[in-house]
Amino acid sequence: MPNQIISFRLNGEVVEIAVSPEEMLLDVLREKMHLTGTKRGCGKGECGACTVIFNGKAMNACLIPAMRAKGADIQTIEGVEGPGGLHPLQQSFIDKGAVQCGFCTPGMIMSAKALLDKNKSPSKEQIREAVGGNICRCTGYVKIEEAVEDAARQLRASAVKGGDL
Amino acid sequence: MVQNYVFPATVSEAVTVLSTNRGKARIIAGGTDLILELQEGKNTCDVLVDLTQIAELKNITEENGFIRIGASVTHAQAAKSELILRHAPALAQACRKVGSLQIRNMGTIIGNVVTGNPAADAAVALACLDTTAEVTTLDGMQTMPLEDMYAGVCMSCIDSCCQVVTHVRFPVKRTGQGSAYLRMEQRKALALPMLAVSALVSLDGDKFEWARLIIAPVGAGPQHALDAEEFLKGAPVSAATMTEAGQLARNQAMFRSSAIRGSKEYRMGVLPVFVERVLQAAVEDARRA
Predict the structure, then answer these.
(1) Buried-most residue among B24, B90, B139, B159 (CB within 10 A)?
(2) ipTM of this complex > 0.90?
(3) A contact residues 93-132, partner B, Cβ 8 Å cutoff
(4) B127 and B145 share a domain?
């Protein structure tokens, strides 16, 4: 059984793709689906650059066997932008200067989004726990934390207004 | 080289697949360690037998006076579980320390034991909780005390090519009991423990009825601080007792100097303080209940 066709939900759309038993989800996303927003950093689950949201939870795509994607609901950075433009997290990362070289940014945003999807009023500690598995070598994390707080504020405000971001 | 990847629906189906493949098939749960071992060539198999779709292994339950944890329960799941928070704060505290949130969302508690690492956070907490594993093979289910699961440093007695650890279980918390876990680390996330301690205490008024005190990494699997445990039996619950227990814990602490975990001398120096603090936290938990 070298390859098996699996289907899963990727950024809201059902996709079908042939994967092999030893392949990781990260390779399928980058090499087969050409979604290169999800980065390969360490390849060992230690840097968080490959973070995706897998069934609602932040996980390292470099450690997820591709076969396990069968039937899963997966979000990558490519699916974060809405029809009305950038997601508040993306805009806040830009506005607050939380992006420098940018390599960690997709993973950071996915980790932060997994948090904000469930909790729009996170404490500093909860934000730090959420992005604690994402290593950034440029910014020193302060601006990233500010960006996540800022995005949470915007999401709360839009929820009050009844908007849908 | 992995040639096949299967998702059995039941435990019996899983052990049948293992048996049919005669040592060439291997269990995978979270996979956070196994995937790296396979990529680095430290481990090999033809077939991966994935436990994550087996319904009966996904839960934490209370049954007949025990808390029972299934093989696909992740660290994140346990850290938030009301049953674990109520009956085993030591385990919840340990689970919050593993790797990063992404790793905790994937890695399993039972995997933390089966990989055999002596300072694996969840395993250190489980050791103080008097944990038993349920191990299934084609011949049926056997129970195995957690202490018997270690064959050496980073070596497990479990052969994942023919055995499945389906559950671990430990007794529910009784009145007067409390537990805690504490580790020393270089940073707050993605850091190996330099030193890990866990304690389960049973108080009888102002005295320790008994205490289980675990230290790691000082040998094959989490180790009991035997002299301190003996000293604590019947001892008054006081700052002086806990300080003395900390000193006695050194008797069973055979640290090795390590570039990753720190020097033997340094860790020997801080061990008594960690023992004292973990005992204080366990006593607080016991009195809170």
Answers:
(1) B90
(2) yes
(3) 111, 128-130, 132
(4) yes
